[in-house]
Here is the input.
Amino acid sequence: MAEKGTWLSLQPFLDDRPSAFPEGSPNRAKQLQMYRGTDSAYALAKKYRIRTAWGSDVLFDSAAAAGQGKQLAKMTRWFTPAEVLVMATSTNAELLAMSGLRNPWPGKLGVVEEGALADLILVSGNPVENLELVADPEQNFLVIMKDGRIYKNATR
Here is the structure.
């Protein structure tokens, strides 16, 4: 079993999008090898109970950021929807809090309680049963609240 301080951050790289490399090329062969390694990495992380955070590199690409929910929903290949939601919320918050002075959000993260810094989303449906709901936020996110301000309210 992993020590308490052992963390791993992986991205769900899969062969589910068009490749920039031509079929049969050396770069495509390397890419396919890396994709196969994704399954192994998640299996080993679960086997050895490594604390796993969820991350992506979509922050600086608005087109990729729009598909962030789809990336998160892919995680059900290796985890239950509940495990994925915990990983993407409270576990990520715990990891961020460990960054000390580099943490841009001083305050309690990853919990819903008075005084904590929390962003909330009200989903139409139960993402614990069907994480695919997060893949279409325009349709399925009824309320989006960030920093205590409501940015979307489709319940009215």
Remarks:
- The chain has a mean pLDDT of 86.
- The chain has five helices and five strands.
- Residues 26-47 form the longest helix (22 residues).
